[in-house]
Amino acid sequence: MAQGTVQVTHTGTSRWRRRTGEYASLAAALEAAADGDVLTVAPGTYRENLVVQRAVTLRGPEGSPGSVRIAPLDGVPLTVRASAVVLDLHVEGQDAAAPALLIEEGTPELSGVRVVTRSAAGIEVRGGARPTVRRCTVDNPAGIGIAVLDGGGGVFEECEVVAAGQAGIAVRGGGHPRLERCRVHHASGSGLTATGENSALEAVGCEIYEVRGSGVQITGRATAHLTDCDVHRTTSDGVTLDTDAVLTLADCRIHDVPENAVDLRSRSVLTLTRTTVRQFGRNGLSVWDPGTRVDANQCEIFDSTGDYPAVWVSDGATAVLDSCRVHDVPDALFVLDRGSRADVVDSDLFQVRNTAVSVSDGATAQLDDCRIREAATGAWFRDHGSGGTLSNCTVDGTQTGVIVTKGADPTIERCTVDSPAEAGFYVSAGGRGTFTNCRVRGSAGYGFHVIDGCRTTLRKCRTERCARGGYEFADGAGDGPGTGPDVEDCTSDESGSLRQQPPASEPVVQTAHQAPGGLLGSVPGPRGTGEEPAAPDTRPGEPSRTSQDVLGELDALVGLESVKREVRALTDMIEVGRRRREAGLKAASVKRHLVFTGSPGTGKTTVARLYGEILASLGVLEKGHLVEVSRVDLVGEHIGSTAIRTQEAFEKARGGVLFIDEAYALSPEDSGRDFGKEAIDTLVKLMEDHRDAVVVIVAGYTAEMERFLQVNPGVASRFSRTITFSDYGPEELLRIVEQQAEEHEYRLGPGVAEALQKYFTVLPKGPAFGNGRTARQTFEAMVERHAGRVAQLAEPSTDDLTLLYAEDLPELG
Question: Number of helices (H) and strands (E), helices first, in the chain?
């Protein structure tokens, strides 16, 4: 057969119709062909736009796949509108507005076709077409790999999209293809995507990898069913569902995903069966919005590479996990927001670095017959409206078994906590909860630890071998009638039984364990009852000094000129704002929270105290008192205690100033899972919720404070300005010593002022240098040396007792 010719074998039912002819062009051969004819194309490049409208076979020569190139300069290279057969062709397109291979009608069969193009789509199926496409490849770095549109369907077997500038395979407009053992990779969009009502996608034994978007994206009421598929090495989420999408994953594997392995929103529904999710950077399952639901059965979610919960359920969504395993993750299950719900049945949550189950913001979780082990916290019900049920669950090898805080009210039934490092069950900060037939064994702390007068209910519970005691009920601010736990028929191997607490008129339970061997009789009262004096009356009253009086004290401080200007400017803004409001005018909002930066001993605490007094004198703060804290006062030793400590410090400062010294210590550079971040997050929320009740000042070294302000996006926005406290110069340090001498009735002898100034000039300004503190320590050292000198005199004069000399200066070390 000559180069560039087409040999056509005409076939039919009658022997006389079998004949062979040769044609100079493909178009001519197709025009002459009848149904059933075979068109064998000689090797070469054909610059023709072919349209197959009869049930013919169009093929390249046997044994030479890819030797026939259909490559017109524009338009669609090959259009199929009949139940034809196309074999071993190489199709090339250059038209960005048209597909390279378009299948519009019939049930054609395509095999061994290679599409290398820069077209809108490599292969496009539309309308009533139902092709069978086998062992075909698409390389289209400019557009979609395979598009199935407008009601099109068909089966794709062992096909491969080796590159796509957009989605690898896209289904929309009611398209419904089936993919069998296909591979999609190196797509710039999603690997597989289906969108629109009546659009459907079925994939069996397929692999999607190395894509820049999501591996699988189902949106806009589309449906999909994937069986025995692999999705991995994406740059976005592994699987994404949005807007009433429905997806079923059976026996699939999703792994090596830097974002969410599966993310679904907006009333989407996902069913997973025997599917594994591993090595994900954010959430393994991320479920959002009312009506959104995921049902997972016999699935495994593990080996997180990020710092996020494995399963995240929020904004009113629902998740059901049945016979699943979640392990080797930072947190296993987080359920947030009112209306959100998680139901977990016969599942294992283990090797969890932080919290296995966290329920907050009014959400609900129900766990039945589950096993939690090797976690920092087994389950944490965090706040008001949050609750649910733990039934027939075991919690083993945790720091704390179950935590209930801030008004949360779960029901815990027939659960056992084994070997916690701290408490088995811990309730604080207004938490409630009902615990029935629960058991704690081998606790290194308490079995049940209920503090703050929480109204927890304990029924028929038991503790065994708890190092600090079976039950500890510590009173809090809520002591009084009707507060404290309600306990009935609870026992301990230490005490035999724990009787129901006395009538509400008696004191709250304080300690519910006793020396071994006896029954607990009358319940002891709270610690310190009748021993400590009543707290002073802290009700706000009229300030003892005006703002001008306090500013006068500020002005009297040595140095700090720029600081004084900043404070006075803030005071002026607040005072003028008050007067404008009194005059019925708009007043600018002044953020009062401050950042103090500078070295130790530069007067930051003193200025903070005066600032609080100024704000009280202006009526901005109720009291103006100063509460000074540092990291050790805010950060607890175990999960849950940090938020509580931070809240307590904030409450102490209510009406005044909370001064956090060395605040940068809350976010150390090698923080990892440091609890300091929890203190920062809690503080930011409190500052927002109670913005008029407390002024917060954070202080520390300049460079470290700059880093601190970048840790939490909400931190920097809460502070109005940064005030820098410069180091004191030698003259200012001299003035501090002179003030100290005058206050303590000493005088500087001749030449001492000059000697002090020289001393402070040459004094090393290393890390131990304390500015004003150094000046005071210098004065104290001079007084000590003076005492050692004067003590030797038999009858010292007044001058001897009061004059300090240069020889009293400490030696430079």
Answer: 13, 66
3-state secondary structure of 333: strand
Are 587 and 756 within 8 A, CB to CB? Answer: no
Q: Which token pair is 766? A: 């290393």
Cα–Cα dist 219/235, whole Å:
19
How many angstroms separate the CA atoms of 577 and 344, rounded?
55
Buried b (16+ CB within 10 A) or exposed e, 473-496: bbbbeebeeebbbebeebbbebbe
Task: Tell me how far apart the alpha carbons of residues 608 and 621 are, in angstroms, rounded to a whole number.
Answer: 13
Q: Strand runs (DSSP E) across 691-812, as ranges?
A: 695-700, 721-725, 747-748, 803-804
Q: Which residue has the tokens 């296993």?
A: 332
Higher pLDDT, 636 or 404: 404
Closest CA to 446 of 505, 402, 388: 402
- Which range is least confidently modeled, 186-200, 254-268, 706-720? 706-720
Nearest alpha carbon to residue 652 among 663, 641, 644, 662: 644
Cβ(761)–Cβ(734) under 8 Å?
A: no
Per-residue burial over 330-350, b if 16 or more Cβ lie within 10 Å, else e, is bbbbbbbbebbbbbbbebbbb
The whole-angstrom separation of Cα 129 and Cα 127 is 6
Among 484, 489, 539, CA closest to 508: 484
Which of 281-290, 411-420, 456-465, 657-666 has the weakest average pLDDT? 657-666
For residue 298, report the phi and psi dihedrals to the nearest 5 degrees: 55, 40
The one-letter amino acid code at 504 reads A
